[in-house]
Design brief:
37 strands
């Protein structure tokens, strides 16, 4: 079956035909199985079609020759078939041996014999039809075949492994040969006699209604016929014997033969020169007479048959006799696009971003691959050596009809060398995709990439792979590779600078001079790059952003400002910080975050709702200096949120080990940005509740509680008017902000950030524990000052600063109380949780017996609590408490008396019957209050160790 097009499967019952179409061979099999279950005769069309129609005019490809040998007394009597299947089979085998044909796949159809010769490649329907007719005629000379199927492009044939219901009982259609051979169609063409129409008649063989499209697909505008090539081939014995004879006898050339040769030259591109070269040696040569004679041959060129009539017997020695209708086919060449190595290199060096309408020169280094003058990629096969040892020129093959070339060479430490491939199609926008060298050198990986972007035969795919490998080697030796970006944001700074020479946003690079170019990106970065394609208008975004400058909307404006501040966090002493907006739904939290993210790209896609913890970390390091958002963060696992907060504050992802050796991987990716989260309930409260010692998150996560602003209370409809446009107008302000930073200069930007840091420390109070607070304020207000200066937004920074400062002063006091650790309470919590493992002693008497493994001892008289250090440290680790800080704090408060070796079960007679061992262990000794609840169970005190 062909590898492309739409397949057709037919089920026939009671002369009623049901057709089903499929786009894959797997689906063909499913349809066959469905029909089999229905108990019907199953047939499959041998061609594929353009669309869901099994009409001959819609057929596009076939991949085999096939014949049908009918059986029956009436068939045998009229010599239209054989008496039995055995007789048909035997005659077929004898015929194959006599004709020296390769063995076909033979099918017992139940009522006859079918034979199939499968080919290596798909055959276009018009070429197949031409040779199928010749094959049919060849078979009819000696075989009784049904003449209808063999050259029918829309023929359906009985499917193997199904049942023929024309017999009773039904007979199975089965393969009865061992052959599974696949053969060269070219070999069959040579065997049957090559039929190649002259170039000007090719369109006659194209499908009706598709002339212009198919002509473009075949790149016929790249073909030309050159008489000089015909002449040279003829003189070398690889061309037309008539033209060879005419050239060798040009001084005495008879007029009829002269006219015949001129009719060939008249249809060649070098006609003006060649008609005179053919004629100038003749004694009566005249320039004007030659032109007149040639112009009389404006119609069809002389055929080989006419040449033979004019000059008999010469054609008998021609190696192409019977293959061509006239000599023009011998001069057909592909017009090669002219190129030079110098111009090609210059194109790649001068333009780091080749415009979409520019096709670079294809260098000579690509040969035997080349570009046609009017597009298309060709392969020039090497000369073929015939049986006589003579070289025969092979025609160039069109391996891809459209434009396909690299526009950039790049290198990534992770992926190696690669190229960005551009594909230009007649009716689509330009496509671009990355091909790494490792993909080009793996047939399966290359196939996976290319077949997602083009329809191409397996043979052509191999040539395309070799063509692009040649491109890669050429660019590797002539053009410097661009380093592939794995992150957005600032490039690595030079010397002691903190801002890089470029800033990446999506697939664009903003340079220090303000120009913007495209840049190669790693696969991870390429996935998110689409988020940063600008949409809508800059003015539309500014209207919404500036609407937040209204009184009562200060905190929402500040949310947008955080998006300006993210790229300048690298100018502070802390790499990053996380900001949470909490409050009831409808207060505009998400709207503020959308305003923030829309500075750079699509806010709905940039804000994460559902993802794994690792995906969050990947997003963070990929964005690098661009803000990222987490919507509804209270729905996430607090541990995940805590990891994001810590990673963001540290400016790097967690350390991972290398897979092959016991060593740390080199930490390649760092980041410095502001993460904005939205929550309905306090995220700090959630973290503090689930983690006993949350001071780290308390310092690194700044949480603002948003109440509904007066503007939205008075005019609720304003919320939609302000915030919704952020979802449709985005990606414009970020590049303008970076250009502004470059114009202001790093030194001045650093000064602006530090000015606000110092101001905030003076207003808020300086405490190193709150360094994330003052750095966030410095980066955000310093960056927004620049945004205001360059007309990106129009914000009253003094008013906004005063409102934000008031919020942060309240936040500071709340965080101190929320983050303070009550270490003494931990001892009581441990006792309450594991009280069944405690032994209680009062004046030598057992007042509480353990019912589980012994973990501690309560001495009521002295007020001391002794707990196994092993068990208590395990508890502290689960609560994520720093053990050293715990010990030092309780020692300082004289609650931890000491650590000593002791027997927790001393004085308890029942210990021997419960415990396997009695030994000294390390125990914490605490002087703390013993919970009264342990003894308020109404039971009687035991004085003898009994239960």
């Amino acid at each position: 079956m062909p590898s492309q097009g739409v397949y057709c499967v037919a089920g026939i019952k009671n002369k009623r035909t049901t057709q089903r179409f499929a786009e894959t061979l797997d689906d063909v099999v499913k349809h066959v199985e469905d029909f089999k279950k229905q108990g019907v005769d199953v047939y499959v069309a041998m061609a594929t079609f353009e669309g869901y129609s099994r009409k001959a005019e819609d057929a596009v490809f076939l991949r085999s020759f096939f014949i049908d040998l009918d059986v029956g007394e009436d068939k045998a009597a009229t010599k239209k078939g054989y008496l039995t299947k055995e007789e048909a089979h035997d005659n077929l085998l004898t015929w194959l041996e006599e004709k020296e044909l390769p063995p076909p796949i033979i099918l017992d159809s139940g009522t006859g014999i079918h034979a199939y010769w499968a080919f290596e490649e798909d055959i276009a329907v018009n070429e197949w039809k031409l040779y199928a007719e010749k094959f049919k005629a060849f078979c009819l000379q000696d075989l009784y075949i049904d003449p209808a199927p063999t050259a029918d492009v829309a023929r359906i044939m009985r499917c193997p492994d199904t049942y023929n219901y024309k017999t009773q009982p039904p007979s199975k259609a089965s393969i009865i040969s061992d052959c599974e051979g696949v053969y060269s169609f070219e070999a069959f063409k040579e065997f049957l006699g090559v039929e190649e129409p002259p170039s000007e008649d090719i369109l006659k063989h194209l499908p009706k209604g598709l002339d212009e499209d198919t002509k473009a697909l075949l790149k016929l505008d790249n073909q030309e016929t050159v008489f000089e090539k015909i002449a040279v081939r003829s003189l070398d014995g690889d061309g037309c014997e008539q033209i060879k004879w005419a050239i060798e006898h040009s001084r005495v050339l008879p007029e009829p033969l002269w006219t015949a040769v001129l009719s060939i030259a008249q249809h060649c591109t070098d006609r003006d020169e060649m008609i005179h070269k053919l004629s100038e040696d003749y004694e009566g040569y005249s320039f004007s007479e030659t032109e007149k004679k040639a112009n009389l041959r404006q119609g069809k060129p002389y055929s080989c048959e006419t040449f033979n009539q004019v000059n008999p017997d010469v054609c008998d020695n021609c190696k192409f006799k019977g293959k061509y209708t006239n000599p023009l086919a011998l001069g057909r060449v592909i017009k090669i696009a002219q190129a030079s190595e110098e111009n090609t290199v210059r194109a790649y060096e001068d333009s780091k971003d080749i415009p979409a309408d520019v096709i670079p020169d294809h260098p000579r280094a690509l040969f035997p691959y080349f570009r046609g003058e009017h597009g298309g990629i060709y392969y020039q096969p090497p000369p073929k050596i015939n049986k006589k040892g003579e070289k025969e020129i092979q025609e160039a093959m069109l391996i891809y009809p459209h434009e396909l070339f690299p526009v950039k060479r790049m290198y990534s430490p992770a992926f190696g060398d690669g190229m960005i491939i551009r594909q230009l199609l007649p009716r689509d926008k330009p496509r671009e995709y990355v091909l790494w060298s490792r993909q080009m050198l793996s047939a399966e990986k290359f196939k996976e990439v290319m077949t997602s972007n083009m329809y191409v035969s397996p043979d052509a795919l191999t040539h395309i792979m070799n063509y692009l490998i040649k491109w890669g080697n050429y660019l590797m030796s002539t053009v410097e590779a661009d380093l592939v970006r794995t992150q957005m944001g600032w490039s690595e700074p030079e010397n002691e600078k903190r801002l890089g020479e470029t800033f990446g946003v999506g697939n664009r690079i903003i340079k220090r001079d303000g120009s913007i170019i495209k840049s190669p990106a790693s696969p991870t970065l390429r996935v998110v790059s689409k988020m940063f394609e600008p949409k809508g208008t800059y003015e539309g975004w500014q209207r919404s952003a500036n609407a937040l400058n209204a009184p009562s909307m200060e905190m929402h404006a500040f949310g947008v400002m955080l998006g300006f501040g993210a790229p300048t966090m690298c100018l502070t002493s802390t790499p990053g910080v996380s900001v949470s907006y909490s409050g009831e739904a409808g207060n505009g939290k998400t709207g503020a975050m959308y305003g923030n993210l829309s500075i750079w790209g699509n806010p709905e896609q940039m804000s994460v709702f559902e993802s794994t913890g690792n995906a969050l970390t990947t997003r963070y390091v990929t964005f690098k200096n661009i803000p990222f958002g987490v919507d509804e963060a209270h729905e996430r696992d607090p541990k995940e949120v805590g990891r994001v907060v810590h990673s963001n504050a540290q400016g790097k992802a967690k350390i991972r080990m290398q897979g092959s050796i016991n060593a740390e991987r080199e930490i390649e990716l760092t980041a410095s940005t502001i993460c904005m989260m939205t929550v309905n309930t306090s995220l700090l409260q959630i973290i503090a509740t689930r983690k006993a010692y949350a001071n780290g998150e308390m310092a690194r996560l700044i949480e603002f509680n948003l109440t509904k602003p007066k503007l939205l209370i008075d005019r609720p409809e304003e919320g939609v008017k302000i915030f919704d446009p952020f979802k449709f107008n985005y990606g414009h302000a970020g590049p303008e902000l970076i250009k502004a930073f470059y114009k202001v200069g790093e030194e001045e930007m650093l000064n602006r950030v530090n000015t606000y840091v110092k101001r905030f420390r003076k207003d808020f109070g300086f405490n190193t524990a709150f360094r994330f607070y003052d750095n966030m304020i410095g980066a955000t207000f310093g960056a927004t000052q620049t945004a205001v200066e360059f007309g990106i937004v129009d914000y009253d920074l003094e008013r906004i600063y005063d409102v934000v400062l008031g919020h942060m002063i309240r936040i500071g006091s709340e965080v101190v109380n929320l983050g303070r650790m009550d270490y003494e309470a931990l001892v009581g919590e441990f006792i309450n949780k594991f009280y069944t493992g405690f032994l209680g002693i009062n004046d030598g008497k057992v007042t509480l017996e353990p019912r589980t493994s012994l973990v501690g001892r309560l001495d009521i008289a002295t007020g001391q609590v002794c707990i196994s250090t092993t068990e208590f440290k395990k508890y502290l680790s689960e609560k994520m408490i720093n053990i050293r800080e715990f010990e030092e704090e309780l020692k300082k408060n004289k609650i931890l008396v000491g650590v000593k070796k002791m027997r927790l079960d001393a004085g308890w007679k029942g210990a021997f019957s419960i415990l396997d061992k009695n030994m000294n262990i390390n125990a914490y000794v605490f002087a703390t209050q013993i919970p009264d609840t342990l003894f308020n169970d109404g039971g009687e005190e035991s004085t003898d160790g009994g239960a």
